[in-house]
Design a protein that fits this description.
single chain; mainly alpha; 2 domains; rod-shaped
């Protein structure tokens, strides 16, 4: 019965194709989701964080962290 064998092979091939298509769609969805996540801008900082950043930048305008340095406009008193 060569017809039965051919039919079985065709069914197996169709099953393999369906499985491959499903896996490909899943992987493509994962890639697109990851790209969307990477393209989403970060959440803006809280207002309080911006206030603290402003204070730090105004006290140490030249990029100093303030560690071991006096704030801008003040001098150590002897």
């Amino acid at each position: 019965m060569p017809g039965d064998e051919l039919e079985d092979r065709a069914e197996a091939l169709a099953l393999n194709h369906d499985t491959f298509s499903r896996n490909t769609r899943t992987q493509l969805k994962q890639v697109l989701d990851a790209l969307r996540e990477r393209m989403t801008p970060p959440a803006p900082p809280l207002a309080q964080d911006r206030h603290h950043q402003f204070i730090r930048e105004s006290m140490f305008p030249h990029g100093s962290s303030g560690l071991g340095a006096e704030p801008h406009g003040t001098q150590a008193r002897i």
